[in-house]
Amino acid sequence: MAEDFHYGGQAVIEGVMMRGRHHLTMAVRSPNGDVRLSTRRLPSAYTGKIRKIPLIRGVLVLAETLVLGIQVLFDSANVALGEENKKIAGPLLWGTLAVSLGFTVALFFLTPMFLASVIESHIGDSSVVSNLVEGVIRIAIFILYLVLINLIPDIRDIFAYHGAEHKAVNAYEDKAPMETEAVRRYSTAHVRCGTSFIFAVLIIAIVVFTLLGDQPLWLRVVSRIVLIPVIASLGYEFTRISARFAGNRVMRVFFWPGLLMQRLTTREPSDDKVEVAISALKGVIEADGRHAAG
User: Fold this and answer.
1) Which residues of 61-76 are buried (b: 16+ CB within 10 A; e: fewer)?
2) Lowest-confidence range among 18-22, 122-126, 214-218?
3) Who is most buried in 109, 141, 155, 196, counting CB within 10 A?
4) What is the model's pTM?
């Protein structure tokens, strides 16, 4: 297996999912306290050579995150409720995906645009200022959203699993033993975190929309929707570069805000959550190892 592959994942209901080169493994704490592991082979669309093409891979990662992310959330919820044999109905999965996408676009792209349009009438007709205001509003909405969902106990629990996921990955990349006592010492922040990626997208969106210049309202709406894949691709490439040069002092200036934002999306996990994250990471590494061995 190539040494430069970067493992990562996401928090799920009562557990952690880790994505490998060819597989993903989900570890979930069941109602009786056991850690249930499930491993699946990733579709070739997510692992083929096209994934190595800059910019295009960003769109694929976005699609993978949305589709697989919702799948594992449903699966983990079933395990946590003791219904792990229950299958997700296709319409439910795609319906949830459509609603999630619609909510995201409306809240984080269209709402800031409309609010900026209202403010624009009071600050003068400047596309640069208008797009800057829109970007600031978008970031403010994102931060407020994170603050509000942190008030929900179940979300705080998921964020603790998110912190455990980061600890496990940080420990693995530091070649530390995959044991709870060793892993718990590591940070809950990670430069490749999805939170940092989202923050990069919010900043890049300001630049991209400003370059479009002044537009009629209908065209603004269209651009905010159709350019999301482009902006996401740029954000993904920026996140990859940041991770590659994480030790560079100059680069730290750029990815530091994303790390700071992770204080809202991660929490210090208990040892039992760290154990779950370690199990998921070990599981996917073993699965990839078996694949490499033929």
Assistant:
1) bbebbebbbbbbbbbb
2) 122-126
3) 196
4) 0.91
